[in-house]
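Each field is set out as follows.
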Amino acid sequence: MISAASSVPEGALVGVDVGGTFTDAVVVAGGRLITAKVPTTPDDQSEAVVAAVLAALEEAGIGPSDVRGFGHGMTVGTNALLEGKGARTSLVATEGFGDLLELRRQTRASLYRLDAHHPAPLIPHERSHEVAERCGPEGVLAPLDPASLARAVEGVRADGAEAVAVGLLFSFAHPGHEREVAAALREALPGVHVSASSDVLPEIREYERLSTTAVDAYLTPVLRSYLERLAERAGEAGLPAPAIMQSSGGVLPIEASAEHAAWTVLSGPAGGVIGAARLAARDATPLALTFDMGGTSCDVALVRDGAPARTSETVIAGHPLHLPMLDVATVSAGGGSIAWADSGGALRVGPQSAGARPGPAAYGLGGTEPTVTDANVVLGRLPTDTPLGGRIRIDPDAAREAVGGLAAELGMGLEDCAEGILAVAVQEMVRALRLVSVERGEDPREAALIAFGGAGPLHACAVAEELGVRRVVAPPAAGVLAALGLVMAGERRDYVQTVLARVDADEDLAGRLAPLAERAERELPGAPRRAAADCRYAGQSHALTVDWDPGAPEAELAEAFHAAHAARYGDAEPARQVEAVSLRLAAERPGTDPELPGDDLGPAVEGPAVIALDGATCWVGEGWSARADPIGGLLLEREPGERRPPPMAAAREEAR
């Protein structure tokens, strides 16, 4: 709520992104962009979130009452899933199907390693309970047995469960029994969270639906507890409750986000992808690769014509999730990633990270192990005269000591070891970028690399060299672009319903979409909507998602699927019957698109050179030049000629 004496009549917009090392905040107010970084507080991220907002507001010279919008992206749910620190969860399934989470899809964890295993299910078999009921494609085959329901409720009570996942057969089409079970659990166990699969994912494929529901139940109590603490802290500071970034790239009110944690597993990376996509659209960049490198990880995505690539499936910590989300790939390669020597004497980087506490050795906070950041300090690529985030002063002696210890262990020189650390980290990041480009049928050499995050512009030239990319963009406010993306993002809701219908006029697919449209209008009135359909040829097992205009003839949907099939697999069968598996609808209110101040670079800078950015550092590699970009950032371009080999490759060639 804006006070009557507000110094910003239109109100200020705030975005906060939590990283492994720093928590970033941006304030957009009165045509200005103000940023702040504070160290992340791993024990309670909400502490650093509010501290970052207040620091940015103080820098802007305005108060909490001036804030009219507050967007937040975090990693609470993801961290809980990766660390196995979710709620104690039970399962209620159809009789005879309580072991679905153990059975999975019966695919091996590794094709050629018989000793590799999938992670244990989030819900162990002893906390799995079954109810007697059965539905089929056409409806109820056997009614829900009250006695079995009562036994299941008492079993959950005896488990001491904090959450319950309910997943019954065919509940995506006939949710009545599942709703009865969920209602009975909520009535008998009022303090226990209940996730019903028909609410989380009303979509075909029982294992994926149940796995997604189990993740939702497992994480929601943890996320709700965090969001309650955050709302309380924000209220005490005079700030409005934040809207929470979803994996789909849109924000939701905090109350709605607290009901389904599975929607937020990519909350952290999503802000950066949305910010980069908006800038790519503003610059009319046809194909871009987003490269967000922070202190702990690196997140990458593909953007075509200003729209980020999307998917409806991913796997996190070995657990499948089938929900609408941005197509983001993540690797454990950040500034805090620890370098080490394996038992064979090979140089490795990550996945362990120094994190925010104690952080890289160069931060002077107690860290002693060599990290990617320390390697950059040794090579003179990080300035030592300006505090990082305005708070942390670089200690070059500590960085040299940490890297020197590893260099001695490997029998290398100090700078050679530092170069090697960066080369290994770059290969991890290149692998992720190839996953979202080459493996999606896109040539990365035709793309621009949009580098951001505290460490993105620092490694962009080396990454681009490996990919054959000749154009790198370091956007305005590169160090805090993920936080800025939270300001830019609009409110979004996604809906899906399995229909299993032929694509022809007799099936009236537009009519089947109507209930989703009605729900979208209730929950997000007046928001523009976009439809899509998961289609396949009759007899196929898996589908492709294609955009769809419900007002157009069904033949156009079939033609769009034929084209998508040809693009993905190299062939199509126009005479074959097309089937719509599920219908999808997205409703999204447009976000803001603030004007951004650019960096005053002056004349073009030839590499090698270091350029300080807002919240980040850019390394202009040898053979590269940097100049001001039309959208206010930096444009780095590679000189024509042969691609130079990476430093470690050159060293190996010389040794031969």
User: Anything to note?
Assistant: Confidence is low (pLDDT under 50) at residues 1-6, 645-656. Residues 85-223 form a domain with the Rossmann fold fold (CATH 3.40.50). The first strand starts at residue 12 and ends at 18.
